[in-house]
Write a structure and sequence with these properties.
heterodimer; A: 242 residues; alpha/beta; Rossmann fold; 2 domains; five-stranded parallel β-sheet; four-stranded antiparallel β-sheet; B: 499 residues; alpha+beta; Beta-Lactamase; Heat Shock Protein 90; 3 domains; eight-stranded mixed β-sheet; five-stranded antiparallel β-sheet; rod-shaped
Chain lengths: 242, 499
């Protein structure tokens, strides 16, 4: 797994650093106040360009990206972040039932919140992502081998036919969760709860998009998956044999 | 009045057909009458002139015979060319000569004889025992006699009868053909109306992009007017929808700021006075309900604009209800009737949770809270029941409460901060699921809100059996837009009066 040096910073830093890319001054200020109050270090950026620069300079543990930005839209910003990093990204979207949610997730976001959100809700999302980041690597000790895949949960490494596969932390956690009990069917609700920390009413599309993205990285033909398969009406499973 | 009643009972097409029928029958009748009259006169004239010619020829023969002193008139008359259709008679010195059986001399019209005796040739038609005869009287003054020849017109009459019968039949046939023509023409004329009606239906169903396409020159005006009307309607609907959505969008940013700032304020209130804490609580709860209202407005304007998308997932009805209860009203008894727990339904969890949240909130605010949640299976649907402890809802109010900004009963303004978008939104959300929501009496008093969602399948022996015709798919919000639209109009209008 490719790891640029600046992304390991949180290991030494006790205070999680949050990069906040939001163009509305008042929203940005109030969020900075609230997040700082909760013990985060907040770096603010009023547009995507400054945000990407700030990330390249100092890194961050979590990035909050608003969908509507003056220079680049949030999706493009997210895609550019993803080119160089697997940092957890939360999209701040306008509406929960729009294409924005799916587009944001497709662009590589790990999670989303919709405006106006409760700070409690946002903090919970951030906490879940930070926990996910920290626990990557401790999901299990042994190497799991599934078809052409070799997963080492402790080292955070996935190899496909010996070649390392680049996964985001959320994708990695999702794969580890499914692969820890091969051939067992997980419902969306179970995956949402275990990987994202949502309750029953979490948005199943988060799982669907992540599964889709994961397939493009681990399957020979993502349209006809052999490893991570859909069990219609029930959920997903990782199967040991095609 | 009678005509008006006829107009109402008969359709346009029937009326056109009848009018064509009557019109063509009248025209054909007149034509037949004229044709008959012309033919009648012509044939009769021909017959009369030929009869006259013959009578004068015969009269000359009779005169030369009578000049000889020993004339035997009777036998001479027998030698004249004659047939069963004509007879010859001679009147001389008070006696009739002739042996015809065709007609007796006494039956000849006296007028004819008078004119002949006065020295004038005459013709006259007369009837005797059902047959028409033509009599030609030629005075023979040189031998002081009158020659009378009588012709039967039976043949001519029967020809005329056949003619009149065929003309009548032709008139009737023409009238029927006219009726058929009328039916065909009216159908042709009504065809564009059907196209317009189909387009109007389509628009009423919510497909506002429907337009009329007229190739016919005569219909272009109708199509243009119709399309202009739909354009205006569509623009107006879009404007209305955009207005609500724009306002809500504008309110979202300050609400986000408010909510984040409140989180900072409420984190530590240890040094605050009680009154300050109370004020903070008020701001907090009002901000929350304001945020909910903005959320609801946005939601409802998206539905109005037809832009709402559902994200249906298959869930077990029983499990879903338990999760709803755990989230919204823990401790309330849950009643899963029969095998309802194993029924599979397609729900957009976010929307359906809002529906239940709105019902629970409604019950808390107006009806003493929820006392029971139930789920049971109907034939092709799953019924969720939310029972409250209130006084129930009178039948007259049961539809009105689902209208926008309608409040439950009177005098609740002081107790609740929310306005009545909750139930209207619940109605919309359920409609997006192709389901229904209504309110009925709870056995034992109180109201029972019922949500009926289509059954997708059920689980038996660990296998999931899909229900006939039930496949979960993403449905566009176009469904039921017709009913929704009328609901909106009725709701705002009546809502204005009630608040």
């Amino acid at each position: 797994m490719r790891q640029p040096p600046h992304q390991r910073r949180w290991h030494s830093d006790c205070v999680p650093r949050i990069l906040l890319i939001e163009d509305d001054d008042r929203i940005r200020t109030s969020m900075r106040l609230a997040l700082t109050d909760e013990g985060h270090e907040v770096v603010e950026a009023p547009n995507a360009t400054q945000g990407l620069d700030a990330f390249a300079g100092n890194g961050a543990d979590v990035v909050l990206v608003d969908v509507m930005l003056p220079d680049l839209d949030g999706f493009e910003c997210c895609r550019r972040l993803r080119k160089s990093s697997d940092v957890p990204v939360i999209m701040v979207t306008a509406r929960a039932d729009t294409h924005d949610v799916v587009a944001g997730l497709e662009a590589g976001a790990d999670d989303y919140v919709t405006k106006p959100f409760e700070m409690k809700e946002l903090s919970a999302r951030i906490r879940a992502l930070l926990r996910r980041a920290r626990t990557t690597g401790s999901a299990g000790g042994d190497t799991i081998e599934i078809q052409s895949l070799e997963i080492r949960p402790d080292a955070g490494v996935v190899r496909r036919r010996g070649e390392p596969v680049h996964l985001t932390r959320t994708e990695f956690r999702l794969l580890c969760e499914l692969a820890s009990t091969p051939d067992r069917v997980y419902s969306r609700e179970q995956l949402l709860e275990r990987v994202w920390g949502y309750d029953y009413f979490g948005d199943g599309r988060i799982v669907d998009v992540h599964v889709r993205r994961l397939r493009t990285k681990i399957e020979d033909d993502p349209a006809r998956p052999h490893i991570l398969v859909t069990v219609r009406g029930l959920g997903y499973k990782v199967q040991t044999a095609p | 009045m009678k005509f008006l009643r006829l107009r109402r009972t008969l359709g346009l097409r029937a009326r056109v057909t009848v009018a064509f029928c009557i019109g063509t029958f009248f025209l054909a009748g007149v034509m037949a009458g004229v044709a008959y009259a012309l033919a009648h006169n012509y044939l009769l004239g021909e017959r009369e002139s030929s009869a006259k010619r013959q009578a004068f020829v015969d009269a000359r023969l009779v005169r030369s015979e009578l000049r000889s002193p020993d004339a035997d008139v009777t036998s001479f008359l027998g030698t004249l060319p004659s047939n069963s259709e004509s007879a010859s008679l001679v009147y001389r010195r008070g006696h009739w000569f002739g042996s015809s059986v065709l007609v007796a001399p006494s039956h000849l019209p006296p007028d004819l004889m008078n004119r002949a005796l006065a020295g004038q040739a005459a013709t006259q038609r007369f009837e005797q025992s059902g047959t028409t005869y033509l009599a030609v009287a030629v005075p023979l003054p040189s031998v002081s006699a009158v020659f009378v020849q009588v012709f039967s017109l039976r043949e001519l009459n029967s020809t005329l009868h056949i003619l009149s019968a065929s003309l009548a039949v032709a008139a009737v046939v023409t009238a029927l053909a006219g009726g058929l023509l009328g039916a065909w023409a009216s159908r042709l004329a009504v065809q564009p109306l059907r196209t317009v009606a189909a387009a109007a239906d389509e628009i009423a169903r919510g497909n506002l992009d429907t337009r009329l396409q007229a190739q016919d020159r005569d219909l272009i005006r109708l199509a243009k007017a119709f399309n202009a009307m739909v354009d205006a309607l569509q623009a107006r609907i879009a404007r209305d929808a955009r207005f609500a959505s724009d306002i809500s969008h504008e309110l979202r940013s300050p609400l986000t700021t408010l909510s984040a700032s409140l989180a900072v304020l409420e984190r530590d209130t240890s040094g605050w006075r009680d009154s300050q804490r109370q004020a903070l609580e008020l701001v907090k709860s009002e901000t929350a309900s304001f945020a909910r209202l903005v959320e609801d407005l946005l939601e409802i304007s998206r539905v109005d604009a037809g832009a709402a998308e559902t994200n249906l997932e298959e869930v077990f009805a029983g499990e879903f209800l338990c999760q709803v209860a755990a989230n919204l009203c823990p401790g309330v008894p849950i009643d899963i009737v029969g095998d309802a727990g194993r029924c599979v339904i397609g729900v957009d969890k976010r929307r359906m949770e809002r529906v239940f949240a709105n019902l629970v909130q409604n019950a808390d605010r107006y009806a003493g809270g929820v006392v029971r949640l139930g789920v049971r299976r109907d034939a092709h649907a799953v019924r969720f029941e939310v029972d409250d402890a209130g006084p129930g809802i009178p039948p007259a109010q049961r539809e009105r409460i689902f209208e926008r900004f309608a409040r439950g009963g009177h005098g609740h303004r002081a107790t609740g901060t929310g306005v009545g978008l909750g139930l209207a939104l619940a109605w919309e959300h359920v409609a997006l699921h192709r389901g229904r929501i209504w309110v009925e009496d709870r056995p034992g008093g109180g109201a029972r809100f019922v949500i009926s969602l289509p059954l997708v399948g059920e689980e038996s022996d660990g296998e999931r059996v899909p229900h006939a015709g039930g496949a979960v798919e993403r449905v566009r919000a176009g469904v039921d837009r017709l009913t929704r639209r009328s609901h909106l109009v009725g709701g705002t209008r009546r809502g204005d009066g009630s608040t």
